[in-house]
Amino acid sequence: MPLTVPDRQTGIHAEPLDWFGGVAGLRLLDDEARAVQRVIAACPALPRLWLGVGAASTPQVGNRGLALRRGAQWDGSIRCGLPLPLASEAFGAVLLQHVLDDAGAPDVLLGECARILAPGGTLWLAALNPWTPYRLRWARSGLRARDPGYWQSALRRCGFPGGAVSLQWIGSHWREGSGGAGVGATDRLRASFALTVNKRERAVIPPARLQHLRWQAGRIAAAADAHCEAAAPIMRA
């Protein structure tokens, strides 16, 4: 007769992101809630889009914002798959709260975020920290914690500027619910981190065109000088 082990003792979840519905995962999501609302509050003019795990509390995105949870499809304000049925460059902020912490490749979703963000818009991405002692709480869940360098490379591949990323460490070091956030050396052991990056603004006039205008201006000035020199003898006469 095969040995059976109760599910609650295996530490294995039906889906990796289901871990966030447990005590340790919910504590972490609560620690991140204030950071989420700060990003949303900093973008009052354009709509905001929040994409989160099923266990997360829905943030206040406003009347023009959308909140979607990851499942078999994105579900919430609308129900959809990828690519997102949203207008290009229509959102001032897009927030991803742990929806990329399973083993899937991130480029498709990050590419969609780059498409729907307006120039200068903010992308906020929360991910699990592979260096924290808190990682023992999601061990064998199927979640995949990847370091900030991995996410910076992924953002660059999708068109975001690589050198303009800000980083904040969030959550507990080990004890559930101790919370907090920071950017110091000891904060690197917190349970998660959040990357913030802005989409590139479009240049008003392309640099090549500016060079052409300067060249034309130089030609006009030279022609004017030649005309004045030619007219000088006539004026003296």
Automatic annotation (TrEMBL):
It comes from the Bacteria. Residues 84-124 form the Methyltransferase type domain. InterPro entries: Methyltransf_11 (IPR013216), SAM-dependent_MTases_sf (IPR029063). This is Methyltransferase type 11 domain-containing protein. It holds the Pfam family Methyltransf_11.
